[in-house]
Amino acid sequence: FVGGQNIGGYAQDGKWEHRTGVGMPLGAPATIMPCKDGHVWMLALEPGQWNGLVEVMGNPDWAQIDLFQDMFQRAQNADMIYPLIEEWTMQHSKWEIMEKCQAAGAPVAAVFTVAEVQAHPHLEARDYFVDVDHPVLGTVRTLGAPFKLPASPGGPHAPAPLLGQHDDEVERELEAFEQQQGGAH
Predict the structure, then answer these.
(1) Over the stretch 35-89, which tens digit does the pLDDT of each residue have?
(2) DSSP single-letter state for residue 23
(3) Spatial separation of the C-alpha atoms in residues 104 and 33, rounded to whole Å
(4) Disulfide-capable partner of 52 in 10, 83, 104, 184 (CB 3.0 to 4.6 Å)?
(5) pTM beyond 0.85, yes or no
(6) Nearest C-alpha neighbor of 83 from the set 33, 26, 149
(7) Is residue 163 in some structural domain?
C-alpha cells in the first residue's frame, strides 16, 4: 500500500518518485500523528472519511475553509493542516482517537509499541503469543500461529535449534539416504 503509487508511476511512466516522508504527496491527512500517549496512523482522504474526522474533532472552524475541502488541497497545504490536527490529537489517547474515528468512518489506527502489542486484548484472546523453553535463554515469549485451525493449531512447539545442535542427526540421515541411492554423490 505505502509504495503503491510509486510502483504504479514507475510501471506507467518509468519514473521513480523521490521519498516523500511519512505522508502521501497526493492526499492529506495521510500520516502518523503524535497524540497524548504515542501515535496514530491517520488516513482521511475521501469526503466521508474527512467529514468523520472533522466531526470527531468537534467541527473546528478551520476545517471549513476552502484550502481543506478536498484531499489534494489538504496535501498542498499539509504544512498548515497537520499542526491543526496535531493540536487536537495531543489532547487524546491513541485508543480514544482510534475508536471514535473508526466509529465515524475515518480510518485511524493506533500505533502500538512492542509491549502494547503483546498486551493487546485481541491477540491475548487468541493466544497469539506463546512461551517456549529455550536451552540457553530459559522461557522465551514468541509469536504463535497467525491463524489456528481445529485439526492443526500450528505455532512453535520448540525453540529454534542451537547452532550445530542437529548436525549428527542430519549427517546420519544424509549417509542413510546416500546408501539407499547407491553410494555417495
Answers:
(1) 999 999 999 999 999 999 999 999 999 999 998 989 999 999 999 999 999 999 9
(2) S
(3) 18
(4) 104
(5) no
(6) 33
(7) yes
